[in-house]
Amino acid sequence: MVAYTLSRFPKISETFILEELDAVERRQFRIELLPLRRERTASIHPKAEPWLARAHFFPLFSFTTIRSHIVVFARSPRAYVGTFLAVVRGNWPSRRLLLGALAAWPRAVPMAMQLERDGIGHIHCHFATHPALAGYIVHRLAGITFSFTAHGSDLHRDQTMLREKVAEAAFVVAISDTNRRVILEHADPADAEKVHVVHCGVDLGRFALRDGSRAAEGDALRVVCVGTLHEVKGQRFLIEAVAALRESGVDTELVFVGDGPDRSMLEQLVVESGLGGAVQFLGSRAQPEVAGALANADVLAAPSVPTADGRREGIPVALMEGMACGLPVVATALSGIPELVRDGVNGLLVEPGDVAALAHAIASLARDPDLRARLGTAARGTIETEFDIERSGAMLADLFRRQIDAQLAAEGALV
Fold first, then answer.
1. I want to staple 234 with a disulfide (CB 3.0 to 4.6 A). Which of 263, 285, 293, 303 is the partner?
2. Which among 309, 302, 331, 151 is positioned nearest to 227, based on CA atoms?
3. Could you tell me the CATH superfamily of domain 204-386?
4. Pairing between β-strand 329-332 and β-strand 348-350 as defined by DSSP bridges
5. Tens digit of pLDDT for each residue in 72-112?
């Protein structure tokens, strides 16, 4: 049995974690899910419902939380105070992470007690920031081993306390070779062997291979962009590219699937660009509806960009989902994306923020149905061989199994 923690649950934009949980459990692991916070959302993925029913949440302030802190302090005041000081000291250079650490601390202590009480020997944490810190706290207070997966902005934006988390972790998962290099730049060289690359994966059973292009001759090319409406996703550059395409005579439609803080700004940009009915904002959608939007598209675009505050994507799962459908994709050569999309082989790559290059890539797909078909077929093949959730789940299950076996061997040696 292993435990998982993450920042918020259920979060509609983190369906890939649900896929991973199911894939690991199919490999004879019982998972206990302990998110740091419950996400209040109007839209819940159907697969999240059974996990939500069995998830354990720890209120920031409650009798149980207070009692847990009293018990842990009374049992080992040195470990309690030492861990708290290590958390504060480790995150002190970053005001943002320090505030998050102080919010995670009250929840991580009862989490440690529950895992210890339930006899769970390992906890895996999704994201290198507060969830990994919770694993660090659990490890320090209860002696339970932990590991964590580093994705995108959680790793690239701020590496405060990353070295300490890697040092204390049993192992670390990077979703790309790029992320592994970033981790090793900030970790003790002696810890290099504990950092493993495991790509996120998608459930191929949910994404049927499309039967050719949707667009017939004379139809508008439909471009879909899936993801949170946020600066890091680069949607404004895509709107500008579509405006340029239509102005040059390339009939193009654009569909955004997702919601977020930039929606009003993007809608205003659409109006200012004179795109009118050529752009749709569908808002947040559950996975079946996302799959439907992909099935009705001709191209998937992921124009990700780095932001001024250091945010950047890892490898967008939306790209994997589009490629699983056999869609030709246009993406930016950023972070780990080139590990998924190989320019001219299974998709097209452009430089981040280059509107002209983005428009040119989409135009080349609009004018060449054979190119769309060739890239789409190759894209599906890439997902089948390298980004299938069954492959990723098997690799993670193997890491968990090796860790548990090592623990049992260590315990046996002490007897």
1. 303
2. 302
3. Glycogen Phosphorylase B; (3.40.50.2000)
4. parallel
5. 999 999 999 999 999 999 999 999 999 999 999 999 999 99
